[in-house]
Amino acid sequence: MNPASPTTGRAPRRRRSANRVPITVYVALGAMVFFSVFPLYWMFVVATTDSATATSLPPHVLPGGNFLHLANLVFETVPFVQALVNSVIISTTIGVGQAVLCALAGFAFAKLQFPGRNTLFLIVVLTMTVPAQLAIIPQYLIMSQLDWVDTLQAVIVPGLVTAFGIFWMRQHMVGTLNDELMHAARVDGATTWQIFWRIAFPLVRPAAFVLGLFGFVNAWNDFLWPFIVLKSPEQYTAQIAIKALQNNRDIDLGLAMSGSFLATLPLLVLFVFVGRRLVQGIMEGAFKG
């Protein structure tokens, strides 16, 4: 028994050394985190000092004490509070709309039988290859005909459904919802809407949450379409308000960075609360795929 004891004692040490993560992995992850976070930190540094900080050599790397003054200038120069409220309304509506409507379309393409289903889904997928800029002119003409120019619905309605969202939810419906479960629900007298809302949607809720969060962030950061269709200052979103902080001849980088940081702060707070669920939803989709 004694000769076997040293062997038994050395085996766990070999297993621990085999599972040890190389130091190069930590170095690579640290570098990725640094290059990801540093632009945000530099934006905050400039937002707490002045425009000279962005161009000074050697550069300043420590925050200053001018942030509150610049923030007050932001609120005095443009209706920034109203812009933030508009961004919240637009982004929340688009996020919720994409989560529900794209799930509905994905359920139809995945589990319902109707003529032209595969052809329509192919057309939806092909629209992802078309640059979004090509749709701006016809989209603006439609908004003009509906008399929606300079209204929030002109920004909300075109973003409620996306081709990627339909494709994303359709793939999750195919891999998650069993046909036998649907047949059993129909035998019990459930309608198609009841099957979707009580069975299908709860099964794909993590994927719908991720899609809705992506839609919220994209709508919050969108600049081009709101800049074209919104004219009045009271209808501005946060991104257009940041653009309004810049003069035609020169740019006050401290003021612009202060507004940018104020517009980014809600996204950071959102990620603190839902970041874990976001990663969990993405990983669940990856494993199911």
CATH topology of the largest domain: MetI-like fold
Q: Mean pLDDT, as a whole number? A: 86
Number of domains: 2
- Text of the CATH class of the largest domain: Mainly Alpha
Q: Tell me the CATH superfamily of the largest domain.
A: MetI-like
Strand tally: 0
Distance between the termini: 50 Å
Number of helices: 15
Main location: membrane
Subcellular location: Cell membrane
Family: Belongs to the binding-protein-dependent transport system permease family.
Keywords: Cell membrane, Membrane, Transmembrane, Transmembrane helix, Transport
Walk me through the structure:
- The structure is a single chain.
- The chain has 15 helices and no strands.
- It is mainly α.
- The chain has helices at 4-18, 23-47, 52-55, 67-77, 80-111, 117-126, 136-145, 153-156, 163-176, 179-187, 192-203, 205-221, 224-229, 238-244, 253-288.
- 73% of the residues lie in helices and 0% in strands.
- It is globular and about 70 Å long.
- The chain folds into two domains: 4-67, no CATH class; 78-244, MetI-like fold.
- α4 (67-77) crosses α15 (253-288) and α5 (80-111) crosses α9.
- The mean pLDDT is 86.
- Residues 84-274 form the ABC transmembrane type-1 domain.
- Keywords: Cell membrane, Membrane, Transmembrane, Transmembrane helix, Transport.
- InterPro entries: MetI-like, MetI-like_sf.
Topology readout:
Layout: H1 4-18, H2 23-47, H3 52-55, H4 67-77, H5 80-111, H6 117-126, H7 136-145, H8 153-156, H9 163-176, H10 179-187, H11 192-203, H12 205-221, H13 224-229, H14 238-244, H15 253-288
